[in-house]
């Protein structure tokens, strides 16, 4: 079972993740795009990376906005290193 990170560890990790926040035991971020097509393309890229990491985010999309939430189910819905790793991956996809 994955070990939850402490609040201090999460705060340290968030210093490297621009725009991400820690709310309700999840790492969250909203991403904006020029249009629906770009938003869905981003979601598709996330899907492939998440499947590789065997860690799947909560994704919510309306038109050109994508909201991502990350927590680890086998850690009781808390934030773990798995979430931080996927958040960093998602950031790299967004910035490319």
The average pLDDT is 97
Structural class: alpha+beta
Amount of beta strand: 15-25%
Find the CATH superfamily: Transcriptional coactivator/pterin dehydratase
End-to-end gap: 33 Å
Proportion in helices: 40-55%
Taken together, the total number of domains comes to: 1
Count of individual beta strands: 4
Broad CATH class: Alpha Beta
User: Architecture, according to CATH?
Assistant: 2-Layer Sandwich
Task: Give the helix/strand layout.
Blueprint (H helix, E strand, L loop, with lengths): L6 H8 L6 E3 L2 E7 L3 H18 L4 E5 L2 E6 L10 H14 L2
Antiparallel strand pairs: 1-2, 2-4, 3-4
Give a structural overview:
- Helices cover 42% and strands 22% of the residues.
- It is an alpha+beta fold and 96 residues long.
- It is globular.
- The termini are far apart.
- The mean pLDDT is 97.
Task: Name a few traits of the molecule.
single chain, 96 residues, alpha+beta, Gyrase A, domain 2, four-stranded antiparallel beta sheet
Summarize the model shown.
With 96 residues, the protein is of the alpha+beta class. Helices cover 42% and strands 22% of the residues. It has a 4-stranded antiparallel β-sheet.
């Amino acid at each position: 079972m994955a070990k939850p990170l402490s609040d201090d560890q999460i705060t340290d990790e968030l210093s490297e993740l621009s725009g991400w926040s820690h709310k309700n035991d999840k790492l969250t971020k909203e991403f904006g795009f020029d249009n629906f097509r770009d938003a869905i393309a981003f979601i598709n890229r996330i899907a492939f990376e998440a499947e590789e990491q065997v860690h799947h985010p909560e994704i919510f999309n309306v038109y050109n906005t994508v909201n991502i939430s990350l927590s680890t189910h086998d850690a009781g819905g808390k934030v773990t290193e798995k979430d931080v790793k996927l958040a960093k991956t998602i950031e790299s996809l967004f910035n490319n």
